[in-house]
User: Fold this.
Amino acid sequence: MKFCRRITVVLLFCTLFLTALSLPASSSDDMGKEIALGEKVAADVEKQWERVADPALSARLSMLLVRFLPYLSRPLPYEVRIVREKMVNAFSLPGGIVYFTTGMLDFLRTDAEVAAILAHELIHADKRHVMIQTARASKINLAALALMIASQGSAGPMILTNLAQIAVTNSYSRDLEREADKEGFRILLEAGFPPAAMVTSLEAMIYDQMKRPYVDPGVFMTHPELSERVAYILQTAKEANVPIRRKKALNLLRPSVESGEGKTVLLLDGEPVWSLPESSESRDIAAAAAEKIDDLLQMETAPYEIQIISLDGKNALRVGPSIVAREPLPRGAESLEAFRESLVRALGNAHNKHPGAKYLH
Assistant:
């Protein structure tokens, strides 16, 4: 497998370069040595994968990164880099460098989902997960790990090879992966991103797995399983009383109102769902309905929650607990029943764009 061959070559380079490093016992110097370790690994990573020099894309990732910095515990020189590789993968190195493959950036659909993966990888770096996992794999503690790397003895190259492999292939144990997910969810929320993005990105990976007879290592090579990770992220959100609303993470079911050619039209994701004759009254009605739909119509809304009810002998369209529109309507407006059918259809179209989720619990 081409990807594995590349990893092997990277690991060999890592072994050769990193044996020259030393990690002193002084805790004040540990961070500097960790950063140097990460930079050496990064140099070898970029010998094997072309680093993408795209100023616009780099600026986009840097803007996402800056929002997380206040919520990380260590002042590492965090940086996001891109390498040209179709494999869907992201990984972090000791010292704070995070890599996204172009395959990962093509796979994720919104900035919120990119931010979710970035949050997860930043926690791996912030919590020194690569170092911890390497020490565990070598059955030694962190202090002993540092000394063995510094010694340049026979065990050092093997340990460094393990370290690089863990970083590039995300081979973390269950507790470290869970911490990256839960703490990643926390900083995603604190940084003001839609927290549901951590769920939708994993759901998309689950759905992608279902379509593949075999999946190469990368972020898919996870332990615990993706479905288990989704479950405990949802439980974490529930315990924190944080609603999971996938539409914001996916940028779906977004209403807008347009007027022209004698009509005022309410649209969902650019598709007309309700038409009224153009007038100031119609624009007010459509704008009010759009505002309520933006709040009430969620990916998690069941179709039966979109219904026509009778109020004082007049029809009204209810979405969830609230009324979106009611009679009387301007002459020439589409009926509320037609409006309801269009909303149900738009909801189904949105589900089709993110088919990996279990919307109803």
Q: What stands out?
A: The CA atoms of residues 49 and 331 lie 63 Å apart. The first helix runs from residue 2 to 18. The chain is about 55% helix and 15% strand. Residues 12-26 have pLDDT under 50 and may be disordered.
